[in-house]
Specification:
With about 70 residues, this protein is of the alpha+beta class. The chain has one domain: Alpha-Beta Plaits (2-Layer Sandwich). It is about 35% helix and about 35% strand. Strands 2-3-1-4 form a four-stranded antiparallel beta sheet.
């Protein structure tokens, strides 16, 4: 299992969290997505490592941006 943590900007409510969880959760191999709304941290547990491009695309689809 691989765990990846990213910081996402622009999330402000529960709907934002749901959108991010839905898009990131649809990536192949993703088993769990935890979102901390206050800090913007998104932790993704997956069976295989996810590329930066996969994560960027999923976050873009949800309507947000990765910080850093």
């Amino acid at each position: 299992m691989t765990s990846t943590t990213i910081t996402v900007s622009g999330m402000s409510c529960g709907h934002c969290v749901s959108s991010v969880k839905e898009e990131v959760g649809a990536l192949p191999g993703v088993q769990d997505v935890q979102v901390d709304l206050e800090s913007g941290r998104v932790t993704v547990d997956s069976s295989t490592p996810l590329s930066d491009e996969q994560l960027k695309t999923a976050i873009d689809e949800a309507g947000y941006e990765i910080v850093g």
